[in-house]
Amino acid sequence: MFFLLLFFTIIGSLESGKILVYSPSISRSHLISNGRIADTLVDAGHEVVVLILEYETLTEFTGTKKAKVIKMTNISSQFMDDMAGSDEYMLSNDRLGFVERAYFEYSASSMCAALMKRRNELEHLRDYKFDVAFSEQIDLCGVGVIRYLGIQNHLWISTTPIMDAISYNLGIPAPTSYVPTIEENDNGDQMNFWQRIFNIYMYIGSIIVHRYGTDRITAVFQEYVPDFPNVREIAANSSLCFVNSDEILDLPRPTISKTIFVGGLGVPKEVKPLDSKFNEIMSKGKNGVVIISLGSIIPFGSLPNHAKIGVLKAIKELEDYHFLIKISKEDTTTLELINQLQIKNIDLTHWLPQVDILAHERLKLFVMHGGINGLVETALRAVPTVIVPVFADQFRNGRMVEKRGIGKVLLKLDIGYESFKKVVLEVLEDESYKQNAIRIAQMMRDKPFSPEERLVKWTEFAIENGVLEELHVEGSRLNTIVYFNLDVFAFIFLVIFIISKIIVYIVCGLKTKFNVTPSKKLN
Protein backbone atom coordinates (compact mmCIF):
# COMPACT_ATOMS: atom_id res chain seq x y z
CA MET A 1 0.00 0.00 0.00
CA PHE A 2 2.88 2.33 0.87
CA PHE A 3 4.52 1.82 -2.53
CA LEU A 4 1.20 2.41 -4.28
CA LEU A 5 0.78 5.75 -2.49
CA LEU A 6 4.38 6.64 -3.27
CA PHE A 7 3.79 5.81 -6.94
CA PHE A 8 0.75 8.07 -7.21
CA THR A 9 2.59 10.83 -5.32
CA ILE A 10 5.48 10.67 -7.79
CA ILE A 11 3.13 10.63 -10.77
CA GLY A 12 1.20 13.59 -9.36
CA SER A 13 4.38 15.59 -8.83
CA LEU A 14 5.49 14.87 -12.37
CA GLU A 15 2.22 16.20 -13.75
CA SER A 16 2.10 19.29 -11.56
CA GLY A 17 3.33 22.59 -12.94
CA LYS A 18 5.49 25.29 -11.45
CA ILE A 19 3.64 28.57 -11.59
CA LEU A 20 4.59 32.15 -10.69
CA VAL A 21 1.91 34.74 -9.91
CA TYR A 22 3.25 38.31 -10.01
CA SER A 23 1.08 40.37 -7.65
CA PRO A 24 1.81 44.05 -6.95
CA SER A 25 0.18 45.43 -3.82
CA ILE A 26 -1.62 48.21 -5.68
CA SER A 27 -4.75 47.57 -3.62
CA ARG A 28 -6.36 44.88 -1.52
CA SER A 29 -8.77 43.90 -4.31
CA HIS A 30 -5.90 43.09 -6.70
CA LEU A 31 -4.25 40.88 -4.10
CA ILE A 32 -7.59 39.11 -3.58
CA SER A 33 -7.96 38.40 -7.32
CA ASN A 34 -4.40 37.12 -7.69
CA GLY A 35 -4.69 35.12 -4.46
CA ARG A 36 -7.78 33.34 -5.73
CA ILE A 37 -5.93 32.34 -8.89
CA ALA A 38 -3.02 31.02 -6.85
CA ASP A 39 -5.20 29.09 -4.39
CA THR A 40 -7.27 27.49 -7.15
CA LEU A 41 -4.12 26.23 -8.87
CA VAL A 42 -2.71 24.94 -5.57
CA ASP A 43 -5.95 22.99 -5.03
CA ALA A 44 -5.41 21.47 -8.47
CA GLY A 45 -2.04 20.11 -7.35
CA HIS A 46 0.33 22.71 -8.77
CA GLU A 47 3.32 24.35 -7.12
CA VAL A 48 2.51 28.06 -6.98
CA VAL A 49 4.64 30.98 -5.84
CA VAL A 50 3.06 34.41 -5.36
CA LEU A 51 5.56 37.25 -5.76
CA ILE A 52 4.23 40.33 -3.96
CA LEU A 53 5.86 43.68 -4.65
CA GLU A 54 4.96 45.99 -1.79
CA TYR A 55 4.03 49.39 -3.19
CA GLU A 56 1.22 49.80 -0.67
CA THR A 57 1.61 48.54 2.89
CA LEU A 58 -1.25 46.14 3.60
CA THR A 59 0.13 44.66 6.85
CA GLU A 60 0.32 40.88 6.46
CA PHE A 61 -2.47 40.55 3.88
CA THR A 62 -1.33 38.54 0.85
CA GLY A 63 -4.58 37.48 -0.80
CA THR A 64 -3.54 33.82 -0.84
CA LYS A 65 -4.12 31.23 1.86
CA LYS A 66 -2.38 28.28 0.24
CA ALA A 67 0.44 29.34 -2.10
CA LYS A 68 4.01 30.11 -1.14
CA VAL A 69 4.53 33.86 -0.78
CA ILE A 70 7.71 35.76 -1.57
CA LYS A 71 7.42 39.43 -0.66
CA MET A 72 9.71 42.32 -1.53
CA THR A 73 9.04 45.14 0.93
CA ASN A 74 9.81 48.86 0.98
CA ILE A 75 10.41 49.08 -2.75
CA SER A 76 9.08 52.59 -3.14
CA SER A 77 6.79 54.94 -1.26
CA GLN A 78 5.75 56.76 -4.43
CA PHE A 79 2.40 55.00 -4.78
CA MET A 80 1.40 55.81 -1.20
CA ASP A 81 2.64 59.39 -1.63
CA ASP A 82 0.57 59.77 -4.80
CA MET A 83 -2.52 58.34 -3.12
CA ALA A 84 -2.36 60.85 -0.26
CA GLY A 85 -5.34 63.16 -0.65
CA SER A 86 -6.61 61.31 -3.73
CA ASP A 87 -9.97 60.51 -2.14
CA GLU A 88 -10.88 64.19 -1.82
CA TYR A 89 -9.81 64.87 -5.42
CA MET A 90 -11.72 61.91 -6.85
CA LEU A 91 -14.89 62.81 -4.95
CA SER A 92 -14.82 66.41 -6.14
CA ASN A 93 -14.33 65.63 -9.84
CA ASP A 94 -16.62 63.64 -12.09
CA ARG A 95 -13.74 61.53 -13.40
CA LEU A 96 -9.96 61.35 -13.63
CA GLY A 97 -8.47 62.99 -16.71
CA PHE A 98 -5.66 61.79 -18.93
CA VAL A 99 -3.15 63.94 -17.05
CA GLU A 100 -3.84 62.04 -13.83
CA ARG A 101 -3.78 58.70 -15.64
CA ALA A 102 -0.48 59.58 -17.31
CA TYR A 103 0.93 60.50 -13.92
CA PHE A 104 -0.05 57.05 -12.61
CA GLU A 105 1.88 55.52 -15.53
CA TYR A 106 4.84 57.74 -14.62
CA SER A 107 4.63 56.53 -11.01
CA ALA A 108 4.33 52.89 -12.11
CA SER A 109 7.47 53.15 -14.23
CA SER A 110 9.31 54.86 -11.35
CA MET A 111 8.31 52.01 -9.03
CA CYS A 112 9.46 49.53 -11.66
CA ALA A 113 12.82 51.29 -11.79
CA ALA A 114 13.10 51.06 -7.99
CA LEU A 115 12.30 47.34 -8.20
CA MET A 116 14.91 46.64 -10.86
CA LYS A 117 17.58 48.37 -8.79
CA ARG A 118 17.07 45.44 -6.43
CA ARG A 119 17.00 42.90 -9.28
CA ASN A 120 19.55 40.73 -7.48
CA GLU A 121 16.73 39.78 -5.08
CA LEU A 122 14.83 38.31 -8.03
CA GLU A 123 17.63 36.07 -9.23
CA HIS A 124 16.79 33.11 -6.97
CA LEU A 125 13.42 32.82 -8.75
CA ARG A 126 15.22 31.47 -11.80
CA ASP A 127 16.02 28.33 -9.82
CA TYR A 128 12.32 27.41 -9.67
CA LYS A 129 12.26 26.92 -13.46
CA PHE A 130 8.64 28.06 -13.71
CA ASP A 131 6.53 26.61 -16.53
CA VAL A 132 4.24 29.63 -16.76
CA ALA A 133 3.83 33.00 -15.04
CA PHE A 134 0.80 35.21 -14.46
CA SER A 135 0.78 38.99 -14.29
CA GLU A 136 -1.99 41.59 -14.46
CA GLN A 137 -2.65 44.48 -16.80
CA ILE A 138 -2.39 47.29 -14.26
CA ASP A 139 1.37 46.88 -13.92
CA LEU A 140 3.24 45.92 -17.09
CA CYS A 141 6.43 45.93 -15.07
CA GLY A 142 5.32 42.38 -14.22
CA VAL A 143 5.43 41.45 -17.90
CA GLY A 144 9.00 42.71 -18.04
CA VAL A 145 10.08 40.98 -14.83
CA ILE A 146 8.71 37.65 -16.07
CA ARG A 147 10.67 37.92 -19.32
CA TYR A 148 13.76 39.16 -17.44
CA LEU A 149 13.62 35.94 -15.40
CA GLY A 150 13.63 33.95 -18.63
CA ILE A 151 10.02 32.73 -18.42
CA GLN A 152 8.67 32.64 -21.97
CA ASN A 153 5.14 31.40 -21.32
CA HIS A 154 3.19 34.40 -20.03
CA LEU A 155 -0.48 34.32 -18.97
CA TRP A 156 -2.12 37.72 -18.70
CA ILE A 157 -4.82 38.71 -16.21
CA SER A 158 -7.41 41.44 -16.76
CA THR A 159 -8.48 42.20 -13.21
CA THR A 160 -11.53 44.01 -14.59
CA PRO A 161 -13.64 43.47 -17.73
CA ILE A 162 -11.27 43.40 -20.73
CA MET A 163 -9.07 46.46 -20.33
CA ASP A 164 -8.37 48.72 -23.30
CA ALA A 165 -4.64 48.01 -23.02
CA ILE A 166 -5.35 44.29 -23.24
CA SER A 167 -7.65 44.54 -26.25
CA TYR A 168 -5.14 46.86 -27.95
CA ASN A 169 -2.16 44.57 -27.40
CA LEU A 170 -3.88 41.24 -28.06
CA GLY A 171 -5.75 42.44 -31.15
CA ILE A 172 -9.21 42.00 -29.61
CA PRO A 173 -11.79 43.93 -31.67
CA ALA A 174 -13.15 46.92 -29.74
CA PRO A 175 -15.67 48.75 -31.97
CA THR A 176 -16.10 52.15 -30.35
CA SER A 177 -19.70 52.31 -31.59
CA TYR A 178 -20.84 49.88 -28.90
CA VAL A 179 -17.83 48.79 -26.79
CA PRO A 180 -17.26 51.47 -24.13
CA THR A 181 -13.71 52.04 -22.95
CA ILE A 182 -13.12 50.74 -19.45
CA GLU A 183 -11.61 53.54 -17.38
CA GLU A 184 -13.40 56.75 -16.33
CA ASN A 185 -16.16 56.24 -18.90
CA ASP A 186 -19.79 56.52 -17.84
CA ASN A 187 -21.15 54.82 -20.98
CA GLY A 188 -22.93 51.55 -21.61
CA ASP A 189 -23.08 49.73 -24.93
CA GLN A 190 -25.97 51.86 -26.23
CA MET A 191 -24.55 55.28 -27.07
CA ASN A 192 -25.96 58.29 -28.87
CA PHE A 193 -23.94 60.36 -31.33
CA TRP A 194 -22.20 62.53 -28.73
CA GLN A 195 -21.47 59.56 -26.47
CA ARG A 196 -19.82 57.76 -29.38
CA ILE A 197 -17.64 60.81 -30.02
CA PHE A 198 -16.65 60.82 -26.36
CA ASN A 199 -15.99 57.07 -26.48
CA ILE A 200 -13.62 57.50 -29.44
CA TYR A 201 -11.86 60.30 -27.56
CA MET A 202 -11.50 58.06 -24.50
CA TYR A 203 -10.20 55.16 -26.58
CA ILE A 204 -7.54 57.21 -28.36
CA GLY A 205 -6.49 58.88 -25.12
CA SER A 206 -6.30 55.55 -23.28
CA ILE A 207 -4.00 54.07 -25.90
CA ILE A 208 -1.75 57.14 -25.97
CA VAL A 209 -1.39 57.00 -22.17
CA HIS A 210 -0.79 53.25 -22.31
CA ARG A 211 1.95 53.61 -24.92
CA TYR A 212 3.57 56.38 -22.89
CA GLY A 213 3.64 54.20 -19.77
CA THR A 214 4.84 51.04 -21.49
CA ASP A 215 7.62 52.89 -23.31
CA ARG A 216 8.86 54.16 -19.95
CA ILE A 217 8.72 50.67 -18.42
CA THR A 218 10.53 49.20 -21.43
CA ALA A 219 13.29 51.77 -20.96
CA VAL A 220 13.75 50.53 -17.38
CA PHE A 221 14.59 47.01 -18.59
CA GLN A 222 16.66 48.20 -21.55
CA GLU A 223 18.95 49.93 -19.06
CA TYR A 224 20.05 46.44 -17.97
CA VAL A 225 19.34 44.42 -21.13
CA PRO A 226 19.87 46.69 -24.18
CA ASP A 227 17.99 44.48 -26.66
CA PHE A 228 15.05 43.91 -24.29
CA PRO A 229 11.77 43.92 -26.32
CA ASN A 230 9.01 46.42 -25.67
CA VAL A 231 6.74 45.11 -22.91
CA ARG A 232 3.78 45.65 -25.26
CA GLU A 233 5.32 43.11 -27.62
CA ILE A 234 5.77 40.61 -24.79
CA ALA A 235 2.19 41.15 -23.64
CA ALA A 236 0.89 40.74 -27.20
CA ASN A 237 2.48 37.27 -27.29
CA SER A 238 0.78 36.10 -24.10
CA SER A 239 -0.52 32.56 -24.47
CA LEU A 240 -3.80 33.29 -22.70
CA CYS A 241 -5.67 36.12 -21.03
CA PHE A 242 -7.87 35.37 -18.02
CA VAL A 243 -10.61 37.97 -17.56
CA ASN A 244 -11.91 38.67 -14.06
CA SER A 245 -15.47 39.14 -15.25
CA ASP A 246 -18.46 36.98 -16.16
CA GLU A 247 -19.80 36.96 -19.71
CA ILE A 248 -23.38 36.55 -18.47
CA LEU A 249 -23.12 39.68 -16.36
CA ASP A 250 -20.76 41.66 -18.57
CA LEU A 251 -21.65 43.83 -21.55
CA PRO A 252 -21.48 41.65 -24.71
CA ARG A 253 -18.45 42.36 -26.90
CA PRO A 254 -16.17 40.59 -29.41
CA THR A 255 -13.39 38.45 -27.97
CA ILE A 256 -10.70 36.10 -29.28
CA SER A 257 -9.86 32.48 -28.53
CA LYS A 258 -7.25 33.24 -25.87
CA THR A 259 -9.61 35.28 -23.63
CA ILE A 260 -10.99 33.09 -20.82
CA PHE A 261 -13.65 34.52 -18.48
CA VAL A 262 -13.10 33.49 -14.85
CA GLY A 263 -15.29 35.98 -12.97
CA GLY A 264 -16.46 34.53 -9.67
CA LEU A 265 -13.28 32.50 -9.22
CA GLY A 266 -12.83 31.51 -5.60
CA VAL A 267 -16.29 32.62 -4.48
CA PRO A 268 -17.39 29.69 -2.32
CA LYS A 269 -20.63 27.93 -3.18
CA GLU A 270 -21.13 26.93 0.44
CA VAL A 271 -22.10 29.74 2.80
CA LYS A 272 -20.52 29.97 6.23
CA PRO A 273 -22.86 30.83 9.13
CA LEU A 274 -22.55 34.38 10.41
CA ASP A 275 -21.26 35.03 13.91
CA SER A 276 -23.55 36.31 16.65
CA LYS A 277 -22.75 39.97 15.96
CA PHE A 278 -23.80 39.89 12.31
CA ASN A 279 -26.67 37.50 12.95
CA GLU A 280 -28.13 40.06 15.34
CA ILE A 281 -27.66 42.90 12.86
CA MET A 282 -29.32 40.92 10.05
CA SER A 283 -32.38 40.31 12.25
CA LYS A 284 -33.10 44.04 12.49
CA GLY A 285 -35.39 46.09 10.28
CA LYS A 286 -39.05 45.39 9.59
CA ASN A 287 -38.47 44.87 5.85
CA GLY A 288 -34.83 43.74 5.90
CA VAL A 289 -31.28 45.07 5.77
CA VAL A 290 -29.37 47.34 3.39
CA ILE A 291 -25.54 47.29 3.33
CA ILE A 292 -23.40 50.26 2.28
CA SER A 293 -19.73 49.58 1.48
CA LEU A 294 -17.84 51.91 -0.85
CA GLY A 295 -14.54 50.03 -0.83
CA SER A 296 -11.22 50.53 0.91
CA ILE A 297 -9.74 53.25 -1.32
CA ILE A 298 -12.68 55.68 -0.95
CA PRO A 299 -14.60 54.61 2.17
CA PHE A 300 -17.94 56.08 3.30
CA GLY A 301 -16.24 58.55 5.63
CA SER A 302 -14.43 60.16 2.67
CA LEU A 303 -17.69 61.47 1.21
CA PRO A 304 -18.12 65.25 1.46
CA ASN A 305 -19.91 66.28 4.63
CA HIS A 306 -23.06 67.46 2.85
CA ALA A 307 -23.30 64.12 1.01
CA LYS A 308 -22.90 62.10 4.21
CA ILE A 309 -25.52 64.18 6.02
CA GLY A 310 -27.92 63.80 3.09
CA VAL A 311 -27.47 60.02 3.00
CA LEU A 312 -27.90 59.70 6.77
CA LYS A 313 -31.06 61.84 6.77
CA ALA A 314 -32.51 59.64 4.02
CA ILE A 315 -31.62 56.51 6.01
CA LYS A 316 -33.38 57.90 9.07
CA GLU A 317 -36.59 58.26 7.06
CA LEU A 318 -36.29 54.71 5.65
CA GLU A 319 -37.15 53.38 9.09
CA ASP A 320 -38.57 50.05 7.85
CA TYR A 321 -35.06 49.03 6.79
CA HIS A 322 -31.93 48.61 8.88
CA PHE A 323 -28.65 49.89 7.41
CA LEU A 324 -25.18 48.44 7.96
CA ILE A 325 -22.40 50.81 6.85
CA LYS A 326 -18.78 49.77 6.47
CA ILE A 327 -16.40 52.55 7.53
CA SER A 328 -12.64 52.81 7.91
CA LYS A 329 -10.98 52.55 11.31
CA GLU A 330 -9.92 56.20 11.05
CA ASP A 331 -13.49 57.44 10.52
CA THR A 332 -14.82 59.20 13.63
CA THR A 333 -17.17 61.71 12.00
CA THR A 334 -19.78 59.25 10.75
CA LEU A 335 -20.67 58.05 14.24
CA GLU A 336 -20.80 61.63 15.46
CA LEU A 337 -23.25 62.56 12.70
CA ILE A 338 -25.42 59.52 13.47
CA ASN A 339 -25.60 60.55 17.12
CA GLN A 340 -26.34 64.17 16.24
CA LEU A 341 -29.17 63.16 13.90
CA GLN A 342 -30.41 60.57 16.43
CA ILE A 343 -30.60 57.76 13.87
CA LYS A 344 -31.57 54.38 15.29
CA ASN A 345 -31.64 52.13 12.21
CA ILE A 346 -27.87 52.08 11.54
CA ASP A 347 -24.97 49.88 12.59
CA LEU A 348 -21.34 50.57 11.70
CA THR A 349 -18.57 48.05 11.07
CA HIS A 350 -14.92 48.11 10.05
CA TRP A 351 -15.10 44.68 8.40
CA LEU A 352 -17.70 42.59 6.60
CA PRO A 353 -17.89 38.83 5.94
CA GLN A 354 -19.02 40.00 2.52
CA VAL A 355 -19.30 36.73 0.61
CA ASP A 356 -21.38 35.11 3.37
CA ILE A 357 -23.52 38.08 4.36
CA LEU A 358 -24.54 38.58 0.73
CA ALA A 359 -26.28 35.21 0.90
CA HIS A 360 -28.45 36.18 3.88
CA GLU A 361 -32.16 36.05 3.07
CA ARG A 362 -32.87 39.35 4.86
CA LEU A 363 -30.37 41.35 2.79
CA LYS A 364 -32.42 43.44 0.36
CA LEU A 365 -29.87 45.78 -1.24
CA PHE A 366 -26.13 46.34 -1.49
CA VAL A 367 -24.94 49.93 -2.06
CA MET A 368 -21.38 49.66 -3.37
CA HIS A 369 -18.69 51.35 -5.46
CA GLY A 370 -18.81 48.93 -8.37
CA GLY A 371 -15.48 47.13 -8.06
CA ILE A 372 -15.65 44.00 -10.19
CA ASN A 373 -14.86 41.50 -7.39
CA GLY A 374 -17.66 42.71 -5.13
CA LEU A 375 -20.01 43.15 -8.06
CA VAL A 376 -19.58 39.57 -9.27
CA GLU A 377 -20.03 38.29 -5.70
CA THR A 378 -23.23 40.35 -5.38
CA ALA A 379 -24.57 39.09 -8.70
CA LEU A 380 -23.84 35.47 -7.78
CA ARG A 381 -25.90 35.93 -4.59
CA ALA A 382 -28.80 37.54 -6.54
CA VAL A 383 -28.71 40.78 -4.52
CA PRO A 384 -29.94 43.97 -6.23
CA THR A 385 -27.47 46.83 -6.05
CA VAL A 386 -26.98 50.58 -6.24
CA ILE A 387 -23.59 51.51 -7.71
CA VAL A 388 -21.78 54.69 -6.64
CA PRO A 389 -18.81 54.65 -9.05
CA VAL A 390 -15.70 56.54 -7.96
CA PHE A 391 -12.94 55.81 -10.50
CA ALA A 392 -11.52 53.44 -13.14
CA ASP A 393 -13.89 50.71 -14.40
CA GLN A 394 -16.59 51.38 -11.80
CA PHE A 395 -18.59 53.76 -14.04
CA ARG A 396 -18.78 51.23 -16.84
CA ASN A 397 -19.59 48.45 -14.35
CA GLY A 398 -22.51 50.53 -13.10
CA ARG A 399 -23.96 50.83 -16.58
CA MET A 400 -23.46 47.08 -16.93
CA VAL A 401 -25.65 46.61 -13.84
CA GLU A 402 -28.35 48.84 -15.35
CA LYS A 403 -28.14 46.92 -18.65
CA ARG A 404 -28.91 43.68 -16.78
CA GLY A 405 -31.71 45.31 -14.80
CA ILE A 406 -30.27 44.33 -11.43
CA GLY A 407 -29.58 47.80 -10.06
CA LYS A 408 -29.12 51.51 -10.60
CA VAL A 409 -26.26 54.02 -10.75
CA LEU A 410 -25.95 57.02 -8.42
CA LEU A 411 -23.11 59.28 -9.58
CA LYS A 412 -20.75 60.46 -6.85
CA LEU A 413 -21.31 64.17 -7.51
CA ASP A 414 -25.09 63.67 -7.27
CA ILE A 415 -25.14 62.05 -3.83
CA GLY A 416 -27.54 63.76 -1.47
CA TYR A 417 -30.73 63.32 0.50
CA GLU A 418 -33.23 63.26 -2.39
CA SER A 419 -31.09 61.35 -4.91
CA PHE A 420 -30.05 58.65 -2.43
CA LYS A 421 -33.57 58.13 -1.09
CA LYS A 422 -35.07 58.03 -4.58
CA VAL A 423 -32.68 55.48 -6.08
CA VAL A 424 -32.67 53.23 -3.01
CA LEU A 425 -36.47 53.15 -2.81
CA GLU A 426 -36.74 52.44 -6.54
CA VAL A 427 -34.54 49.34 -6.33
CA LEU A 428 -36.11 48.17 -3.06
CA GLU A 429 -39.72 48.57 -4.15
CA ASP A 430 -39.56 47.52 -7.82
CA GLU A 431 -39.67 43.71 -7.74
CA SER A 432 -38.18 43.46 -11.24
CA TYR A 433 -34.69 44.20 -9.90
CA LYS A 434 -34.82 41.18 -7.61
CA GLN A 435 -36.29 38.94 -10.30
CA ASN A 436 -33.60 39.97 -12.78
CA ALA A 437 -30.92 39.39 -10.15
CA ILE A 438 -32.22 35.87 -9.54
CA ARG A 439 -32.17 35.09 -13.27
CA ILE A 440 -28.62 36.43 -13.76
CA ALA A 441 -27.34 34.57 -10.69
CA GLN A 442 -28.90 31.31 -11.90
CA MET A 443 -27.27 31.61 -15.33
CA MET A 444 -23.89 32.54 -13.86
CA ARG A 445 -23.97 29.44 -11.66
CA ASP A 446 -25.35 27.06 -14.30
CA LYS A 447 -23.27 28.00 -17.36
CA PRO A 448 -21.00 25.25 -18.74
CA PHE A 449 -17.70 24.96 -16.86
CA SER A 450 -17.01 26.79 -13.63
CA PRO A 451 -14.39 29.58 -13.37
CA GLU A 452 -12.17 27.15 -11.47
CA GLU A 453 -12.40 24.53 -14.21
CA ARG A 454 -11.59 27.09 -16.90
CA LEU A 455 -8.58 28.47 -15.04
CA VAL A 456 -7.11 25.07 -14.18
CA LYS A 457 -7.71 23.34 -17.53
CA TRP A 458 -6.42 26.21 -19.66
CA THR A 459 -3.39 26.77 -17.42
CA GLU A 460 -2.55 23.08 -17.62
CA PHE A 461 -3.02 23.23 -21.38
CA ALA A 462 -0.48 26.07 -21.54
CA ILE A 463 1.94 24.15 -19.31
CA GLU A 464 1.68 21.02 -21.47
CA ASN A 465 1.97 22.78 -24.82
CA GLY A 466 4.22 25.74 -24.11
CA VAL A 467 3.67 29.15 -25.68
CA LEU A 468 0.35 28.93 -27.53
CA GLU A 469 1.44 30.55 -30.79
CA GLU A 470 -1.60 29.03 -32.52
CA LEU A 471 -3.95 31.35 -30.59
CA HIS A 472 -2.11 34.55 -31.44
CA VAL A 473 -4.19 37.00 -33.47
CA GLU A 474 -2.34 38.58 -36.36
CA GLY A 475 -3.91 41.92 -35.48
CA SER A 476 -1.75 42.06 -32.36
CA ARG A 477 1.32 42.37 -34.58
CA LEU A 478 -0.03 45.05 -36.91
CA ASN A 479 0.76 48.72 -36.50
CA THR A 480 -2.07 51.20 -35.99
CA ILE A 481 -2.22 52.27 -39.64
CA VAL A 482 -2.56 48.73 -40.97
CA TYR A 483 -4.83 47.51 -38.13
CA PHE A 484 -7.44 50.17 -38.81
CA ASN A 485 -6.89 50.09 -42.61
CA LEU A 486 -6.01 53.78 -42.56
CA ASP A 487 -3.73 53.29 -45.56
CA VAL A 488 -6.58 51.62 -47.49
CA PHE A 489 -8.99 54.44 -46.67
CA ALA A 490 -6.34 56.99 -47.66
CA PHE A 491 -5.82 55.18 -50.98
CA ILE A 492 -9.57 55.03 -51.67
CA PHE A 493 -9.91 58.71 -50.82
CA LEU A 494 -7.00 59.53 -53.14
CA VAL A 495 -8.52 57.47 -56.01
CA ILE A 496 -11.90 59.14 -55.55
CA PHE A 497 -10.21 62.55 -55.43
CA ILE A 498 -8.24 61.88 -58.65
CA ILE A 499 -11.30 60.51 -60.50
CA SER A 500 -13.33 63.51 -59.35
CA LYS A 501 -10.62 65.88 -60.61
CA ILE A 502 -10.53 64.07 -63.99
CA ILE A 503 -14.34 64.27 -64.32
CA VAL A 504 -14.31 67.96 -63.46
CA TYR A 505 -11.49 68.56 -65.98
CA ILE A 506 -13.39 66.71 -68.76
CA VAL A 507 -16.66 68.51 -68.02
CA CYS A 508 -14.92 71.88 -68.01
CA GLY A 509 -13.17 71.01 -71.30
CA LEU A 510 -16.40 69.94 -72.98
CA LYS A 511 -18.15 73.06 -71.76
CA THR A 512 -15.38 75.21 -73.23
CA LYS A 513 -15.40 73.32 -76.56
CA PHE A 514 -19.12 73.52 -77.17
CA ASN A 515 -19.65 76.96 -75.78
CA VAL A 516 -21.03 79.17 -78.57
CA THR A 517 -20.30 82.88 -78.31
CA PRO A 518 -23.33 84.93 -79.44
CA SER A 519 -22.71 87.01 -82.61
CA LYS A 520 -22.62 90.77 -82.19
CA LYS A 521 -25.69 92.59 -83.31
CA LEU A 522 -25.28 95.04 -86.20
CA ASN A 523 -25.94 98.65 -85.48
Keywords:
single chain, 523 residues, alpha/beta, Rossmann fold, seven-stranded parallel β-sheet, six-stranded parallel β-sheet, 13 strands, 12% strand, disordered N terminus
Can you tell me about this structure?
The chain has 3 domains: 186 residues, Rossmann fold (3-Layer(aba) Sandwich), CATH 3.40.50.2000; 171 residues, 3-Layer(aba) Sandwich (Rossmann fold); 26 residues. The chain is globular, with a radius of gyration of 28 Å. Strand 12, helix 15 and strand 13 form a beta-alpha-beta unit. The N terminus is likely disordered. It has 523 residues and is α/β, with parallel strands linked by helices. The chain has a 7-stranded parallel beta sheet with strand order 3-2-1-4-5-6-7, with helices on both faces. A 6-stranded parallel beta sheet has the order 10-9-8-11-12-13, with helices on both faces. It comes from Caenorhabditis angaria. It catalyses: glucuronate acceptor + UDP-alpha-D-glucuronate = acceptor beta-D-glucuronoside + UDP + H(+).
